Amino acid sequence: MSVDVVAQVKRRWLPVYALLLAGGFLLMVALLYFYFRTKSESYLSGLILLTMIEGYIGWSLYKLLSVKPEARTLVTLLRCENCGHEVEREYRDGDSLFSKAGKCPKCGNDTVIVEAIFLRTYKHWGTEKI
Fold first, then answer.
1. What is the assigned CATH class of domain 71-122?
2. Among residues 96, 95, 113, which one has the least CA distance to residue 104?
3. pLDDT per position as a tens digit, 86-105
4. Beta bridge partners of 88
5. Where are the domains of the chain?
6. What letter would DSSP give residue 66?
7. For residue 40, with 0-12 CB atoms within 10 Å meaning exposed, 13-18 middle and 19 or more buried, which class applies?
8. Are 113 and 98 in contact (CB under 8 A)?
9. Which position has the higher pLDDT, 126 or 45?
10. Phi and psi at residue 83, to the nearest 5°
């Protein structure tokens, strides 16, 4: 999941979870009040069921908030066919596999090609490479 998608999901569903938790809590208090007032076990059964539902909603909210997006960058690997010198750089529009990419900084020949294009992922926003 990209960083933007995670942020959009959190923004969209956070108020829904908050309303469900608040409404459920108020309903739990009302059921508890009616149980002590009437001693009817149907209120107690409803309270137990609602407590399980609230626990699930709370757990789901916790899981939603604990999603940590990964930072990712597209990387191009350049390799000189003459001397084997390799360099990684950020991907640029127009990079395609096995296309010529200029002169080699080591030997000076015009034999540098794009050998690979890959996605590099970081655990903590640009600090730790996987």
1. mainly beta
2. 113
3. 989 889 888 889 888 888 88
4. 77
5. 3-65, 71-122
6. T
7. exposed
8. yes
9. 45
10. -110, -10
